[in-house]
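Researcher: We're teaching a course module on how sequence relates to structure. For the next exercise, students receive a sequence and then see the predicted structure as tokens, so they can try to spot secondary structure elements on their own. Here is the exercise chain.
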Amino acid sequence: GFTMVELAVTMGIFVMLTSVVLANYRTFSNNSDFLNVGDNIALSLREAQIYGVGSKGAGTECGTSPTLLSTFNCAYGVSFTKGDSVYTIFVDVDGNTIYDAGELIETVYLPSGISLTEIGGVDRVDISFKRPDADAIIMPMTGGLSGPRVDSVGITVENTTKKSVVSVTRTGQISVTTTNKSL
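Model: And here is the predicted structure for the students to work with:
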């Protein structure tokens, strides 16, 4: 048998441990959501790279000249806009290396409280890949006008406590760096 004191102490310890676990669960969940965002962006870029240099057919003819039209001659890419909480995976049907209406494959929504806060000092960047090279075509855009291709770009996503930067270089290298924001 148990005495009432032993039962009360045991229940008190159980309640205290349960409340600590439940209080920290929300923080753990938010941190794991945030850590997944940078990795998911990198995976979306890698998916576009694999589709672009591989033999994924677009279901429509792509190319800039009639002699090069082919369903396997399409660039695939990802478009990021500063301040948004979404990004777009696209197939470049018209061959201009930027995302236009009608080229959407998928819109990816970021978790609540996370947004794209910086994109290499521009308003928008479109990163695409086209066979036979695995090199990235990085097209910055400001005010709706595309600028010249650049060699690298950093895409920054933030929440209230953490910051991740997804870096993409012209050679097709993709990396993710996550840090705590200084208060």
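Model: If you want an answer key for the exercise: The longest strand covers residues 162-169. The chain has one helix and ten strands.
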